[in-house]
Design a protein that fits this description.
With about 100 residues, this protein is an alpha+beta fold. Helices cover about 30% and strands about 10% of the residues. The protein has a domain at about 20-75. The model is unreliable at about 75-80 (pLDDT under 50).
Length: about 100
């Protein structure tokens, strides 16, 4: 009897475990065209899931895939923060030697 209970509990745990696993999505902000990785599927209309809605089991897997997604490459960055703009009005570099 205990063996049947143990087998049933193991089967239930095996079925429940995949639903508890984290899922990562590559999403793109429709206004800025900037891609990021999120853990929940977006529900707003300002972000869309790219790569045909594909989900990833680890953040590293999503980061690697984001480097190959063409819409994420078009903005010049592959995730991460946007680099700061260069300073204006700073010193002018000297001309090259002749």
């Amino acid at each position: 009897m205990k063996m049947k209970l143990l087998v049933a509990a193991a089967a239930f745990a095996a079925l429940a475990t995949p639903s508890l696993a984290a899922e990562f999505y590559i999403v793109q902000d429709t206004a800025t065209k900037h891609c990021t990785i999120v853990e929940q599927k977006p529900t707003s209309k300002t972000t869309v899931v790219v790569d045909n809605g594909r989900t990833f089991t680890t953040r590293q897997e999503a980061e690697g895939a984001m480097k190959t997604v063409k819409v994420c490459e078009s903005g010049g960055t592959v995730g991460g923060p946007v680099p700061p703009a260069p300073p204006r009005g700073g010193p002018v570099p000297p001309p090259p030697p002749r």
